[in-house]
Structures are given as structure tokens and as C-alpha cells.
Design brief:
Number of helices: 3
Low-confidence stretches: none
Distance between the termini: 142 Å
Oligomer: single chain
Shape: elongated
Structural class: mainly beta
Helix content: 10-25%
Largest sheet: 10 strands, mixed
Length: about 425
């Protein structure tokens, strides 16, 4: 069916666009509505809201607590500048800005020992001790992982002037069977940040092998040199060698190189094991050299010279220009020893070491030109001369470098 003209009422085809009778257009006109300004304002407001929310979110993300993970050193920044935190077991490494990624020590399986774990802090390139940094710290702990069967015992972190310039120090107690663990420092800051540093701590277990006069000839210095060469060839490197010497006098100089061994002297009632020449220690493994119950009787020169770590117990030194001397890289721990009639009884002359014994107890310095001389010795760990006797020396202690010493329990006659 068609349609009618809207103007004159004439019948029209369905698809007619105008009326042939009155020529009136049959196409309807749509109403055009003017734009509404509020819609534009709404879109602009929505866009601004989105931008504001993004800015707030960015601020929240920027200021949310962060975790700073590292190995032996970590960089940390806040409103006061940049901090570098680093860990080591030797104070001089902190002072030299040398983090220690791994510490390896050797120890007999049946022995217990202790080393410090140290945390240092640099602020804008300058070393701090405890300083303002720890005013920002909520908690500080040192833990070991996996630490199976409590292989390591760790004390709480403290600030100790003995270990300056460390900002915090922990005692790590271990045995020869402690194995390999990761030491992890965790600092939780008051602003919510977390800082973690890591150091590998490895203990190599050692076993003892003893040599006595029944096992090998030891009557002369030539016998002793031959035995040391045999030990270098035949004994595994992870074995501690103890040589029990007879009560004889060894004439001539002896140098212990590469392989460390321990000498234990004895007495037959009329005399003790004696060296009349210089004993020089230039070893590199394993661990310390121990010298016990030996007499060093000279006529000038140096009785004992060490550029490695050594421990001497119950030994005597007489007649030397220098009774015992620590050279570069070495350290000698002394206990219950006698220094008599020497130009210098004991001399420190080193710029670095990997071991330090803070006590010099129960010794005697008698009738020496100088009892103890401090020529060079780095660090600030005080040396305690508890119950050590000074008598008849021209100078008891020569300390031009003003190294810190404790004489409160020393005896001066």
C-alpha cells in the first residue's frame, strides 16, 4: 500500500520523495539539537582525575618501603645522601673500602675458634663508625644459613671501639666442622626499608699428623730440613703437622717455607730444645705456625722472624739483636715467653696482617736494651700486657707510633 502526501493528501508510491500534485517534498527533517557544554566539562574533569590518581599512585610507589639486596657491599640512598655498607672480618679491609665476599679459614676438627664479623658504613664517601646512620635503623641482626646443627654461634651486633672503624661487630664462634655458611646482615630501617648484605664463611676441617724422634731422625738441623722436605712431598695440604723435637741444640739457620708445621720442644732435665740460628717463617698454609717450649739462644742477629701468623708459648729468647720480629704481613701471638739480654726483645714492624692476638700475657722482659718496640703496626686494637713483667731494661716499651696498649696489669720492677 502507498502513502499519502502530507501536504495535499494525494495517494503516493511508497518510495516517493515528492508529491507530483503539490510538489511538496516528502523527506522528513530531523531536529538538530545544540551541543551541551556540561558533557565536555565532565570529560575534562575525568581526565584530570585520572592524571591525579596516577600522580598519587606514582608518589606512593616511590615512597613505599624498598629492599636493597647485595653481596658484601650495598648502596643505599635517602634524603641525607648516599650510603655504602660493606662487610669484612678485618678492620683494615673496612678502612680500605675492601668488602670481603668470602672468608676461608682452616681449623682442626676438634678445636673451637672465633672471628669478628664487621659491618662498615660510608656516608657520601666518608667512613662512619656508629654515627647518625644507626639513628635511622630499627633493627640489625646477623644470621647464618643453613647453619645446620648450630654450626656457628653468633653474638648480637654491637659497636666496639676495639674493632674501629666498624660500625657494628659480631663474634662468630665456629669449629673445624662448621662447614660453609652464608652470613647475612639484615638492617630494617625506621622508614620501612630493608638492607641485606651477604658473605660466605667457609671452614676447612683439618686433621693432625704427628712426627716424633721415633718416626724420623731429628738430631741435627740437616735431619730437620730433610723431614720438612718429606712432609712437603707426602703429607696432604689439609693436614696439620706437629713435630715433637728432642732436647737437642740445632746450629744454623732454618727457613720454613710454603708448608706450615708446628714445633714442640721438650727438656731432658738438663736442657731444652734450642735454636742458635735464625728461624724464619715464610709459610702460606695451613693456618698458624705454633712454637712451644723452645729456647732461642743467639749471639746477634734475629732469633725468630715471621711474615705469617704464628703463636709462641713458653719460649725464651736471649743474646739477639732482635729476639723475635713481626715483618710485613705477619703477626706473632705471644704468651708466657721470656726475653732476656737482647738489643730488642720483641719488635712489631708490619703494615698488614690476617691475625691479631690482643693479649701479650705472662711474659718477662729482663735486661734488654728495649723490651718491646712498635716500629709499624696498623689498626687500633689495644694490646694488653696483663701480668707481663718488665725489669732492668734500658727502655721497657718503645712506642713512637703511639699504638694503643694496656699496661694496667703489667708489672714494672
Amino acid at each position: 500500500m502507498g502513502k499519502k502526501c502530507g501536504n495535499c493528501g494525494a495517494e503516493l508510491p511508497e518510495d516517493a520523495s515528492f508529491c507530483p500534485r503539490c510538489a511538496q517534498s516528502q523527506i522528513g527533517k530531523a531536529e538538530v539539537k545544540p551541543p551541551r557544554p556540561w558533557r565536555k566539562r565532565t570529560l575534562i574533569s575525568a581526565a584530570c582525575g585520572i592524571l591525579l590518581a596516577a600522580a598519587v599512585l606514582a608518589g606512593l610507589l616511590y615512597h613505599r618501603p624498598k629492599t636493597y639486596e647485595g653481596g658484601a657491599s650495598v648502596l643505599y640512598s635517602d634524603s641525607d645522601g648516599e650510603y655504602e655498607l660493606l662487610v669484612a672480618t678485618i678492620s683494615s679491609d673496612l678502612a680500605n673500602r675492601t668488602p670481603e665476599e668470602k672468608r676461608t679459614v682452616s681449623l682442626p676438627v676438634d678445636e673451637v675458634s672465633c672471628l669478628p664479623a664487621l659491618l662498615g658504613v660510608f656516608h657520601n664517601g666518608e667512613l662512619e663508625d656508629t654515627g647518625a646512620f644507626f639513628d635511622k635503623v630499627e633493627s640489625c641482626v646477623l644470621e647464618a644459613f643453613p647453619n645446620e646443627n648450630s654450626a656457628l654461634e653468633i653474638s648480637d651486633p654491637v659497636f666496639d671501639t676495639v674493632f674501629a672503624p666498624a660500625a657494628r661487630e659480631c663474634d662468630v664462634i665456629f669449629t673445624g666442622e662448621s662447614g660453609t655458611n652464608e652470613l647475612v646482615w639484615t638492617l630494617r630501617m625506621k622508614n620501612g626499608d630493608t638492607i641485606r648484605l651477604r658473605e660466605t664463611f667457609e671452614v676447612i676441617p683439618l686433621v693432625h699428623q704427628a712426627f716424633t724422634p721415633e718416626d724420623a731422625p731429628m738430631e741435627t738441623l740437616e735431619d730437620l730440613r730433610a723431614l720438612l722436605e718429606r712432609i712437603n712431598r707426602e703429607v696432604p695440604a689439609d693436614t696439620i703437622v706437629d713435630i715433637y723435637l728432642p732436647p737437642v741444640t740445632y746450629t744454623g739457620n732454618l727457613t720454613m717455607v710454603s708448608r706450615a708445621v708446628n714445633f714442640y720442644g721438650c727438656s731432658d732435665g738438663s736442657g731444652r730444645t734450642t735454636f742458635t740460628g735464625t728461624l724464619t717463617l715464610r709459610t702460606d698454609s695451613p693456618s698458624n705456625v705454633t712454637l712451644c717450649d723452645l729456647d732461642f739462644a743467639g749471639s746477634g742477629g734475629t732469633g725468630l722472624s715471621s711474615t705469617v701468623s704464628a703463636l709462641i708459648f713458653g719460649c725464651s729468647f736471649s743474646g739477639w739483636d732482635i729476639g723475635a720480629e713481626v715483618g710485613d704481613g705477619g703477626m706473632i701471638g705471644v704468651e708466657n715467653c721470656v726475653f732476656r739480654n737482647n738489643g730488642i726483645g720483641f719488635r712489631y714492624d708490619t703494615t698488614g696482617y690476617s691475625f691479631f692476638k690482643t693479649g701479650f700475657p705472662d711474659c718477662t722482659f729482663r735486661d734488654n736494651g728495649i723490651g718491646v718496640q712498635f716500629a709499624r703496626l696498623p689498626g687500633t686494637m689495644a694490646l694488653d700486657f696483663a701480668f707481663t713483667v718488665f725489669s732492668g731494661n734500658e727502655t721497657d716499651i718503645d712506642n713512637p707510633i703511639a699504638y694503643p696498649i694496656d699496661l694496667s696489669k703489667a708489672v714494672f720492677e
